[in-house]
Amino acid sequence: FVPNAHISDYIVVVARTGNGEDDISLFILPSQSNGVNQTLLKTIASDRQSEVTFDNVELPASSLLGEKNRGWQTIEKVLKWGAIGKCAEMSGGGQSVLDMTVEYAKQRTQFGRPIGTFQAIQHHCANMATDVEGAKFITYQAAWMLSEGLPADREVAMAKAWVSDAYKRVCALGHQSHGAIGFTKEHNMQLYSRRAKAAELAFGDSDLHLDKVAEIIGL
Q1: Whether residue 43 is found in the same domain as residue 123
Q2: pLDDT, average across residues 24-38
Q3: Hey, which of 90, 111, 157, 179 would disulfide with 167, CB 3.0 to 4.6 Å?
Q4: Could you tell me what percentage of the chain is helix, strand and coil, using 3-state DSSP and rounding each to the nearest 5?
């Protein structure tokens, strides 16, 4: 699943270049090279990911990115920053879902009054707001620690696991509050739900990051 490969000029390829556990290297590959095949995939989020396969692709030594057998260190950095970037995306998505749900609750009427006057909808929106604020804070903390060069493996894993689940909860409550209109293609609610699932899987899903947290705290 390679995002936007169909419009890229180059693809960064990860390859094993030795027998050691961490003997991984990175290479810059022109996307139109002979033997590179791309297939645009249909995904739940409609986010234009491609399957990229290689058939006897040859690269010159100059295509090596960084040092040979030292690529895993770079990958770890990319995964951490990518995970936090996704957390920021999900936090923003959750805020948008909350905003549209609150506005909808003010305008949609049932039994002669706005649905936002009913306690059930009020509590839905309150829970959504709590999840959104929590997602922002845990994301900010992890992002700050990374930017300061501090050890942040635990904070990044906590953020990615928690924000992924929080975003899904926000979308679920948004759907409950919107009712049937939220499931139609004409309404943006469904787009956020589909993107929430894709964002959860990017840079490691919740289970992967929960496993990391458990290991870090000594379990």
Answers
A1: no
A2: 91
A3: 90
A4: 60, 15, 25
